[in-house]
Design brief:
It comes from Chryseobacterium elymi. Belongs to the ABC-4 integral membrane protein family. FtsX subfamily. It is a multi-pass membrane protein. One of its GO terms (biological process) is cell division. Helix content is 70%, strand content 8%. It is of the alpha+beta class. Helix 1 crosses helix 7 and helix 5 runs parallel beside helix 8. Strands 2-3-1-4 form a four-stranded antiparallel sheet.
Length: 299
């Protein structure tokens, strides 16, 4: 009879542990998925902002005999622009290149309308994402315009502001959902752990009544919480990695190439799983340690 009771308790314990692990894995899978979306959304946002360029123009009026001197001055100016703090990338566009681009835009193959290079040479500047901010864009343009040799800087400020505001709004929503999932992770994992500890409340109280110290009682529960939290986190991360690999292979893009960010996401998910499991275990166990025997029947 005693043997059958022990076997029943062991099966119930295994079932309880499996339930906790699955709960942790599912919650952390969703939390990790939101983290991946947030990381890639931020990178994609930066990529779009870098496509919003400003054009810095050189003086188009100069004597043909000074062309060599002017070319040298433009080269020096281009190098200075590349070193400016707001500049992510700079591309030099010569008069010939500007003329070819104009013909391509207007769909003209003949050179009849372009007896000479009527377009000035310029520098196409992609700003760093933080300088696309409407509050900083004017300052960035002033810095570029102050470089000797640049006579004018033009940009579509309205488009930049609209794109920046829309991207910022989207990122805020994604960040908000990520925080919501983090709160849900805390609540759901905490509830799973509390139910597990609740099933052992009589054991906890019995150990206390026979003289066991609270630290001694807590230790095995904390160790178990660490193990369950780690197992649940690993399962959640493996599922997340599999789903993300399948998704990126289907669309043919790996999105963010920075493995360092993925590493810290893994550390975060693993840490959240273990930390919440341990913290919930401590609070749930401590509650029964402080309660009376009679309260165990009504908890």
């Amino acid at each position: 009879m005693a043997k059958s009771v022990d076997e029943f308790n062991k099966k119930r314990l295994r079932s309880s542990n499996i339930t906790v692990v699955i709960s942790i894995a599912l919650v952390l899978f969703l939390l990790g998925l939101m983290g991946l979306i947030l990381i890639n959304a931020q990178k994609y946002s930066d990529y779009i902002k870098e496509q919003l360029v400003v054009n810095a123009y050189f003086d188009e009026n100069y004597d043909a005999k000074d062309s060599v001197k002017i070319a040298k001055l433009e080269e020096e100016t281009f190098k200075k622009v590349q070193t400016l703090a707001p500049v992510k990338k700079a591309t030099y566009i010569s008069r010939d290149m500007a003329a070819q681009e104009a013909k391509k835009t207007m769909g003209i193959d003949s050179d009849a309308l372009f007896e000479e290079n009527i377009f000035p040479s310029s520098i196409e500047v992609a700003l760093k994402p933080e300088y696309v901010d409407p509050a900083k864009i004017d300052g960035a343009i002033k810095v570029i315009k102050a470089v000797p040799g640049i006579i004018d800087v033009k940009n579509d400020s309205t488009l930049m502001v609209d794109v920046y505001n829309n991207l910022s709004r989207i990122l805020k929503w994604i960040l908000g959902f990520s925080i919501l999932f983090l709160v849900l992770a805390v609540v759901l994992i905490n509830n799973s752990i509390r139910l597990k500890i609740f099933s052992k409340r009589f054991i906890i109280k019995t150990m206390q009544l026979v003289g066991a110290k609270r630290r001694f009682i807590l230790k095995p529960f904390i160790i178990e919480a660490i193990i369950l939290g780690a197992i649940g986190s690993v399962i959640g991360l493996l599922a997340l990695g599999g789903v993300w690999y399948y998704f990126t292979s289907q669309i043919g893009s790996a999105f963010v190439q920075d493995n360092n960010q993925y590493f810290w996401l893994i550390v975060l998910v693993l840490g959240v799983g273990i930390f919440i499991s341990v913290l919930s275990t401590i609070f749930a166990t401590w509650r029964f340690l402080k309660s009376n025997v009679d309260d165990l029947y009504y908890s």
